[in-house]
Give the backbone structure.
Amino acid sequence: MSTVQARGPGRVNLIGEHTDYNGGLALPFAIDRGVTVTAEPAGGKEIHAEAHDLGETDSFLLDCPGKARGWRAFVRGMVAELTGAGYGLRPCRLRIEGDLDQGAGLSSSAALEAALCLALLATAGEAEPADRRELAKLCSRVENGWVGAQTGLLDQLASLCSEPGHALRIDFATLDLQPVPLDLGDWTLVTIDSGTVHEHAGSGYNERRAECRQACERLGIASLRDATIADVERLPEPLDRRARHVITENERVDEMTRALAAHDLQAVAALLDASHASLRDDYDSSTPEVERTIDQAGAAGARMVGGGFGGAVLALLRPGVVRPPGALAVVPGPPAALV
Ligand code: GLA
């Protein structure tokens, strides 16, 4: 086998936040920034990995990866999960590099997972599964079991299953995927880093997941997808607000799909604002830095994106509006692939 290279994109979630682990709806898209993994076959029994941008390395036995922290947990976890799924991996040297800021809420994690799994499979001569949703689930197990972040499937599905020029409507109850054309005319979507790094494993993310589970238990339902707005009244504070966010956010995903089909950019902007207000007031996942970033964006509509508690803001700018300093224009790019 020769040297291979795989690229995993980061993602932006247009709308549908904190709905994935609640069996709900979301509308993310892969962006044209991400992580590249180069895999070169090696002798011996080890995997050698280099996080080029960090200037760090790791080496471990292919058949006994063991636990580690930080980026090393992704590599070791991926090797263990692929092996556990029956893929015959081979010793190799991995070089990881990227153009996606870590912790900015654009899912450098899923980008890394997607690039890693495609590179590891290709260098071992293994074909990827016919259904990429299976790879997304495997990547998610790496994050849950090895990195320790109880994230849902949003980021991995966006990175692996998006289509260029489209957002991806995901129904997390059925894992049904539907590409939705994302044509914004002269309007621009940008992300702006709030300057505060968020880290899922240490943030309020896991606490919110636990609250949603408690809400389900009290309502006697399997997931908040099955809750109605009338159920909110039956929940104590703050579970009532958490559930209300999820229920109304699912509705906004469908409203967004309709607004895009109608090329109604004012409605798109209003939905971004509404999503943000719900995340801030009902989900309590904003921070003063995120609020300041939104206030200063000069956007028609804007919202925090990803897990929240810091990270990036997604803003929709009217034609001709000057981009705020540091803003990154985001367009829907291709999914993870071998380069
Ligand atoms: C993070 C997680 C996703 C999802 C979002 C919130 O990005 O990784 O699984 O839960 O937060 O929508």
